[in-house]
Design a protein that fits this description.
CATH superfamily of the largest domain: Glycogen Phosphorylase B
Number of strands: 13
Order of helices and strands: EHEHEHEHEHHEHEEHEHEHEHEHEHHHH
CATH topology of the largest domain: Rossmann fold
Radius of gyration: 22 Å
Helix content: 40-55%
CATH class of the largest domain: Alpha Beta
Shape: elongated
Number of domains: 2
Structural class: alpha/beta
Length: 379
């Protein structure tokens, strides 16, 4: 199949999933083109045969900002005219699904080969951007006009149909995020010092300062019993400074490490006793899944699609979103009882293998594409 993928060039879930999907499809001998306004990090270091089209547009005095989306649309249309595409897969409703639909319309006007549009909803395109009154009508149009729509969790499908009147639940197919079980796998063993790790973009929704406060409470519980631990924070973003301030106020020097952006995630995830998710909103929880694949138990908040990924009490421990003491207690219990954390980590790896294996989920996308293309693929 000839497949085009539109995505944001980010370290976040949608950019990671789109990049890994492109690489997996190319590995399965499909012709894959990825379109973005910058090079996605996961593709920048990958050897796979995905053709990446970085379209940034040209600055013009009338524009307040460079019109990346228009440049991407133009590049897709040019490629479709010269080489042809069967499917255009947009990751995120705004702007990518709207861009894909405009390309489909332009291709039909020019009497080019039919082009099918698949839109994958990842979360904030529905819960934040999509619900904004400025964008809600356009989001509703993008969902209704797409040839197929997928959501990364059952929770996101439910919220989409609740928030956008006229969108039937049966019109959205749940295809979960996935993980490469060969890349994300258990390492040699646990670190000598009990540790928890967190990976995110440090946006407000991730609550990294709140997590540092929870770790301080957990450390107090451990210290009262003569135990010790550390928290490793990986990533960068708006709340980095606030997280550092909380760590300093709580006297956590020597207990909290700020590593910044890193690519070698399996080497950081597998030695940890717990992976922490303190978010107020998670449509899926890709970073938690990657930790689970590395054999690391999850301590998280019971929000969004995270309970679909983490089986509470088996592969991790979940608490209500505002329960700071409960979160800290769960974290302390896994840092202190390393046998329990290892058992939960093994269960987490088994769950990742059973439900979220890359090959199995990519096959679901391939089947979706084939259903849309139908007899045209055989011809």
């Amino acid at each position: 199949m000839r497949i085009g993928i539109l995505c944001h060039p980010t370290y976040g879930g949608s950019g990671v999933v789109a990049s890994e999907l492109a690489l997996s499809l190319a590995e399965n001998d499909h012709r894959v083109h990825l379109f973005s306004h910058d090079m996605p990090p996961r593709l920048a270091r990958a050897p796979g045969p995905v053709e990446v089209h970085v379209a940034q547009g040209s600055p013009y005095p009338l524009f307040h900002s460079t019109p990346h989306d228009l440049a991407i649309m133009s590049r897709i249309l040019d490629l479709h005219r010269s080489e042809g595409l069967d499917v255009l897969h947009a990751h995120y409703a705004i702007p990518h699904a709207v861009s894909a639909l405009q390309v489909r319309s332009a291709a039909a006007e020019a009497k080019l080969d039919p082009l099918k549009v698949v839109t994958t909803l990842h979360g904030t395109d529905i819960t934040l951007v999509g619900n904004d009154p400025s964008y809600a009508p356009l989001t509703r149009y993008a969902i209704a006009a797409s040839d197929a729509v997928t959501a990364v969790s059952e929770d996101l499908r439910r919220r989409t149909t609740d928030n956008f009147e006229g969108v039937p639940p049966c019109g959205i197919e749940v295809i979960p995020n996935f993980v490469d079980l060969e890349e994300f796998c258990p390492g040699a063993g646990r670190a000598e010092r009990p540790s928890a790790v967190h990976v995110s973009n440090f946006r407000k929704v991730k609550r990294v300062p709140w997590l540092v406060e929870a770790f301080a409470l957990a450390l107090e519980k451990l210290a009262s019993r003569g135990a010790d631990a550390e928290l490793v924070l990986v990533g960068d973003g708006p709340q980095l400074g606030e997280a550092r301030r909380v760590a300093q106020q709580r006297g956590l020097e020597g207990h909290v490490k700020f590593l910044g952006l890193r690519d070698a995630l399996p080497d950081l995830l597998s030695p940890a006793d717990a992976f922490c998710v303190a978010s107020t909103e998670e449509s899926f929880g890709l970073s938690a899944l990657e930790a689970m694949a590395c054999g690391t138990a999850v301590v998280g908040t019971r929000v969004g699609g995270l309970p679909e990924v983490v089986e509470d009490g088996v592969s991790g421990l979940l608490s209500p979103v505002e329960d700071l003491a409960g979160f800290a207690g769960h974290l302390a219990s896994l840092l202190e009882d390393r046998g329990r954390s290892s058992a939960m980590g093994a269960a987490a790896r088994e769950r990742a293998m059973a439900l979220f294996d890359r090959r199995r989920v990519v096959e679901q996308y391939e089947n979706l594409y084939r259903r849309l293309i139908g007899g045209r693929l055989a011809s």
